[in-house]
Design goal:
The protein has 173 residues and is of the alpha+beta class. It is built from two helices and eight strands. 17% of the residues lie in helices and 34% in strands. It starts with 26 loop residues before the first helix and ends in a 9-residue tail after the last strand.
Length: 173
């Protein structure tokens, strides 16, 4: 198991724009994906982007079946997404209390497009294209933001809805 340290908000690497992957199905890419998966699972994440472990490449992973950090989240298929592109399909938005492994112990209410299409490649260079909404759409947008040097607080409109999980009133607490 190759669990890597997760960079935290304030680290300049998290503010960089990531480079596209130009070669697929390489040992280096496979190792990066294994490191991302191991690190995400060890930290109970719903997703993880390469910059979060210090690699400024356009690689994200995500997927959730059951997760203590997001107990009410719908199932999202385990996905490796490389060189992603997102297309907004509706003006409708949704708000969600997002968290991030790079901002431990905190959550923020973020409004994002509710219906998107994402495209990219898997680790073998095969095309992935999905039209999604709900939690799936949130996770994809959150992870892809990392590839542009954006953390979720930078997407927030109301900083009074940002704080430590144990201090916020989320889900009736």
């Amino acid at each position: 198991m190759a669990v890597k340290p997760i960079l935290k908000m304030g680290n300049p690497v998290l503010q960089q724009v990531s480079e596209p992957i130009t070669e697929f199905n390489t040992p280096e890419l496979q190792q990066l994906i294994e490191d991302l998966l191991d690190t995400m699972q060890a930290n109970q994440g719903a997703g993880l982007a390469a910059p979060q472990i210090g690699v400024t490449k356009q690689v994200v992973i995500f997927g959730i079946e059951q997760n203590e950090r997001y107990p009410d989240a719908e199932v999202v298929p385990q996905t490796v997404l490389i060189n992603p592109q997102i297309e907004v399909l509706s003006q409708q938005t949704q708000s969600y209390w997002e968290g991030c492994l790079s901002i431990p112990g905190m959550r923020g209410l973020v409004e994002r497009p509710a219906h998107i299409r994402y495209r990219g490649f898997d680790q073998y260079g095969e095309t992935i294209e999905r039209e999604v909404n709900g939690f799936h759409a949130i996770v994809v947008q959150h992870e892809c933001d990392h590839l542009r040097g954006i953390l979720y607080p930078m997407q927030m409109h109301d900083m009074s809805k940002f704080g430590f999980i144990d201090e916020l009133e989320i889900n009736g607490r």
